[in-house]
Amino acid sequence: MSDDAPKKGDSPEKAAKALRAGHLVILPTETVYGLAADASNPDAVVKIFEAKGRPRFNPLIAHVRDLAAAESIAVFDERARALAKAFWPGPLTIVAPIRDSGRVCDLARGGLDSVAIRVPAHEKARAVISAFDGAVVAPSANRSGRPSPTTFADAIEETGASTSAAVDGGPCREGVESTVVSVLGDQVALLRPGTITREQIEVVVGPLAANTAEGHRSPGRLTLHYAPDAPVRINATKAKDGEILLGFGEGIGDPRWSLSTSGNLREAAANLFRLLREADRTKPVGIAISPIPVTGLGEAINDRLNRAAGFVG
Ligand code: TXA
Ligand code: MG
C-alpha cells in the first residue's frame, strides 16, 4: 500500500467527491467490496483495468440508485422490470441493451451494446451513489484472478493503493458476487450464479435458458478465477499432509477452518473468500475443501470453487 492510500474508512461524501474528480474508490457492497469509478468517465474507468490487471474486453457492472436510474441507462422489458422489482435493491445484476452510452462509457461496457446494471442494498454503497448522483462502475476490488475481498482490510490490501478514498462497510453480508442474468435473448439466461438462486429467479420469469452458448457470452467467465496462491482441491473428505481443510458440516476438519460447522450455505458463502485468503496466508501445501451441495446457493459456491481449482465452468 502506498503512503497516501487510505487506511481507515472515509465518508460517502468524500468518496463521491473523489469519484467526481476521476479517482478510484473502495466501495463496500452486500456481496463483495468493489473498486469504483465514474461510469461515464473513460479516463477514470481505465484506471480500474490498470489497478486490477483486468483484460480490457471484460465489461463492468454499473451500480445505480434505483430502477428509474437503471431504465434511463438501459432498455428494460417486462422481464427485466419484474426481476428488478423482485430483487432490487440487492445482489442481482441484469444485462440489458444499452440506451444511453454516454452514462456508461464504451470502455466500461467492453465495447458491447449491452450493459450490466444493479442496485446494491448496502447502506454505504447507496450513500456513495446518492452523493455522487450518477452511475458507478465497480468490479470486485481484487487484482484480476484473485479471490474477491469481503472485508475492508482485504480490499485495501488488494487495490487500496490505487484509490484516493475508501469506505469501510464492515464484513460483506453475502460474501459472493451478485447473480448475473441476461435479458438479451428470448429466454432469460443465468450468466453467473450468485446468492439469488436459479430457483428464485425462475419463480419470477419462468424457466431459464439452458446452460449453453449464452452462458459463455459473459466475457468475465475466465477459467482460473478467484484463486489463492495455494492449489485448491475440491470435494475433499480429508486434508493431506500440509494441506488446510475448509470443512462444511459438523465434525469435519478443524472448526477454526470450517465454512459452516452447521452445514449452512449462507454462512459458507459469507465465509468463503475470507477463509480462502486466511488459509492462503499460512502458505499451506494446498487448500482442500469439503463437498458442498449444489442446490440453491450451493450452485454459486461450487461455481467459485471450481474456478479457484482451475476447472472450466
Ligand atoms: O457483486 C458484484 O457483482 C460485485 C460488486 C462489487 O457489485 N461486482 C462484480 O463485478 O462482481 P465483476 O466485474 O467482478 O463481475 C462482472 C461480471 C463479469 O463476469 C462480466 O463479464 C459480466 O459481469 N458482465 C458485465 N457486463 C456484461 C455484459 N454487457 N454482458 C455480459 N456479461 C457482462
Ligand atoms: Mg470479480
Under CATH, the homologous superfamily of the largest domain reads DHBP synthase
CATH class of the largest domain: Alpha Beta
At CATH level 3, the topology of the largest domain is: DHBP synthase
Report the sheet-strand fraction.
15-25%
* Order of strands, widest sheet: 7-1-2-6-3-5-4-8-9
Shape: globular
Secondary structure: helix percent: 25-40%
- Unique ligands: threonylcarbamoyladenylate, magnesium ion
What average pLDDT do the residues reach?
92
Second rung of CATH, namely the architecture of the largest domain: Alpha-Beta Complex
**Radius of gyration (Å):** 19 Å
* Number of individual domains: 2
Output the helix-strand order: HEEHEHHEEHEHEEEHEEHEH
Distance from N terminus to C terminus (CA atoms, Å) equals 33 Å
- Number of helices, counting only DSSP H or I runs of 4 residues or more: 9
By DSSP, the count of extended strands is 12
Q: What kind of sheet is the major sheet? A: 9 strands, mixed
Low-confidence stretches: none
Strand pairing plus helix content: what structural class?
A: alpha/beta
